[in-house]
Amino acid sequence: MAGHGTDEHPHGADRLCEAGDRVYSRAVRRGRVPRRDAEPVPCLMELALLHPDPDDMDWLVPTSPQEVMTRLLRGMYDEVSASQRRVGSAVAAFEWYSGLGRQVSSVPSAAEGPAIRVLDGLARIQAAMDEATRACTTEVLTVQPGGIRREAELSEGLHRATELRGRGVRMRDLYTHVARHGQGLLTYLELMGDAVEARTLDEVIERLILFDRTVAFIPANAERTMALELRHPALVEYLGTVFERLWRLAIPLTAPLPDTGIEGISHREQSIAALLAEGHQDAVIAERLGISVRTCRAHIARLSETLGAASRTQLGVRIAQAGLDGAHRPAAPVTLPGRGSPTAR
């Protein structure tokens, strides 16, 4: 809200303003507070003392006093010689807040964090992923939809990938087949060397980043300005299983895509044909394959020309005749118009 910026709240989590103290105390005591109650005290969101309730974004839930305490002490001990009095103040303050909680024993430990945490804003997302990167020791699994990866996106996570490679962490990435045509991705993989293995599929699930089968990050809105940090063992295990099954189906980036067996029809056009046969619209097909709607329609036009279809209805029939609808291929090969015996139109 206007008039309540950080200039009016120049303090840390260890010495809240009077208004912030009231709202945070109420949140700890009751378990959550309406978002509107926190609007006059933006310091609580900025200091990560409150965050959106995953079940209802109109409410805010408090970060446990124990977790806040641990986060404060981690930073303070780096400057212990100049911060001893602040450490004592923080300990005293959060011992008081801890006594307000109704179910302290059920709160996850500070080391593990909450099972599901909403990360609101790109800065908060990046900070959480940086923290997960520092704690990672074994492997990172990622799913990257959206087709060709922009160099800005690749550069954004380069520092994390470089840090992980330096510690011998194994990285496996899944992309769509379209990503093969991006020079930025090829340059990134060449830079990472054997530390990163990449495979591609016709289409993949939404973005997923999984560290050590312990913590996962997924988008929480379409704009990807919010994310969910997942630490629930069952959820993380499920996402790891999904990744492994997609990985087995995927094609290594170093291997060529399989030939369709039909002259004049590319692998991408085969994928588009299968999705058309399922009844999907052009925009949906483009999004799932990571291409633009314009490119998708150009491929559909080439499909129609190659299969000799004069309309979308006729194209659907020809797709089925050619075995491009995902079903079993017909026993007898289909001869395309203009490539041998004529096919009835």
TrEMBL record:
- Name the SMART domains on file: HTH_LUXR
* Residue ranges of domain HTH luxR-type in the record: 258-323
This protein's source sits in the domain of life called Bacteria
Q: Which Pfam families match?
A: GerE (PF00196)
- Could you tell me what this protein is called? LuxR C-terminal-related transcriptional regulator
